[in-house]
Write a structure and sequence with these properties.
Helix content is 44%, strand content 21%. With 228 residues, it is of the alpha+beta class. 39% of the residues are buried.
Length: 228
Amino acid sequence: MRQYNEGSGIKVLDRAVAIVAAVASGDKSLAELSDAAELPRATAHRIATALEVHHVLARNERGEWSLGPALPSYTGGPSPRLLAAAAPVLRSLVEATGESAQLYQLTGTTRTCIAAEEPESGLHNVVPVGSHLTLTAGSAARVFAAYAPVDAPFKDAELKQVRDDGFAESVAEREVGLASVSTPVFQPDGALVAVLSISGPAERLKPSPADKWGKELLAARKQLEGEL
């Protein structure tokens, strides 16, 4: 078995790297993590718990350790696990609503579309994967501003309403003729990992995108969080 916990001379760092490397190959129970990192269970648990505080690791509903949301934010890329979980959710949203669906992650002073699904035909909104959009307008921007420390022009009362409702909506705010409704997606540890959105022509979604598709959006969020 590869020795991860030797090398730099800084024992706690080497052990932390051993634990992250072990989890990177697949979710691990404490016993599996201890064996893979070649550490006593108490040591593995203590370090893994500390890494969880910084969202480098997370735990699923079975109590197994997995990679947390912090690592993708450091590397600039989305989690493969998040993308895999989101794909069927986005497809189901499009089938249910006939509108476009997107998943965004916070990337510094912008939000980046990391996954998207569009209807096969008809007038719809297209957000290419990899697009960097503003944090100053749009329903997804409002959600990020409500749950993350970003510089945005929204009023405190608006952001409190987003947190109370669990979603935000906008009509012709970021772009004329476009409307959307968005909701936060959380990791099991409560960390904001992404924002899920439905968007389409304002003529179809106004006066309230949330009244039209909010129920479907919140159900999709619940499904995605369950997969995470």
